[in-house]
Amino acid sequence: MGACRDVAWSVVATARHPADLADLPDGGDLRCLTLDVTSLESINRAAMACSDLRIVALINNAGYGQMGPLEFVRPEELRAQFETNVVGLHAVTNAFLPLIRKNALKGEGRIVHVASMLGRLSIPLAGPYNASKHAVVALAETLRLEIGDEIPVVLVEPGAVASSFRTTITNAWGDLPDRIKGTRYEKILSGFVRTREAQAKQFAGSPEQAARCILKALTRKHPPRRILIRPEARLAGWAKAMLPSAVWEWLLRRNYGLN
Questions:
Q1: What is the block-wise mean pLDDT of the chain (259 residues), using blocks of 10 residues?
Q2: For residue 211, how far is the Cα from the chain centroid?
Q3: Any idea what the CATH number is for the domain that residue 32 is in?
Q4: Residue 239: inside a domain, yes or no?
């Protein structure tokens, strides 16, 4: 979330756990708040805590990845994925949109949804995450149609970014490794982890690069509707669009050991 003072930016940084914000620099232009996007009470409390600020922009970046073969993903795991990545994003947007409308001068307001390259395409063993990011894209496109003439809505679609995201993938599995024992997925899931780690080491960009792209969305007079971060995100989208579907799917199965 951003609070604009003249041409400078103040920032409201949020996290479920205050300790996650402990390394941010002190300063009068930074306010740290606890926010759980799956709790309406927490969302409303955060909005109230910002009522004294001139909030003009919102960045929806909360999310995690629920991975695993779809036939072994429990309904409650899929619901939890959507509660954070989709429903929470929608609830936060609705809570802060009135503040942006109240404070933003003409051409100043922004809503940024951080989706993923997996909002454009799908990969194996990431069905819940794929679906949630496709949903984020749909919400952003719909919101843009509804309020885009008043407040630009920008989709940011990163490829691999160096972060703790891949660690949270295994944390979200729970007892999934036990569920798939004795199935073909037992070996494939281990390969999936290795593949994702290798791709991260080879392709992952810095958080600073992603932040610069988001800043561009906030400050450009006419921001683009969608911002792809990292060359591999562009390449993957191009390959899916250009290759025959059968070839594209064969390549993905081969890459993830599903042939």
A1: 58 91 83 95 95 93 92 96 97 97 90 92 94 97 96 87 60 85 88 69 72 84 84 82 94 87
A2: 13
A3: 3.40.50.720
A4: no
Any domain includes 244: no
Q: What is the pLDDT of residue 6?
A: 44
Q: Return phi, psi of residue 183, to 5°.
A: -105, 170
Q: What is the DSSP string of 176-224?
A: HHHHTTTSTHHHHHHHHHHHHHHHHHHH-B-HHHHHHHHHHHHH-SS--
Q: Can you tell me the distance from the alpha carbon of 152 to that of 113, in angstroms, rounded to the nearest whole number?
A: 11
Please state the domain count of the chain. 1
* HSE, side-chain direction, 13 A CA sphere, residue 63: 25
pLDDT in the model for residue 18: 87
Give the CA distances from residue 92 to residues 40, 84, 86, 113, 211, in Å, rounded to whole numbers and listed in that order: 8, 11, 10, 11, 20
Q: Indicate the pTM of the whole model.
A: 0.88
Residue 219 has what pLDDT?
86
Specify if 245 maps to a domain: no
Cα 235 to the chain's mean position, in Å? 20
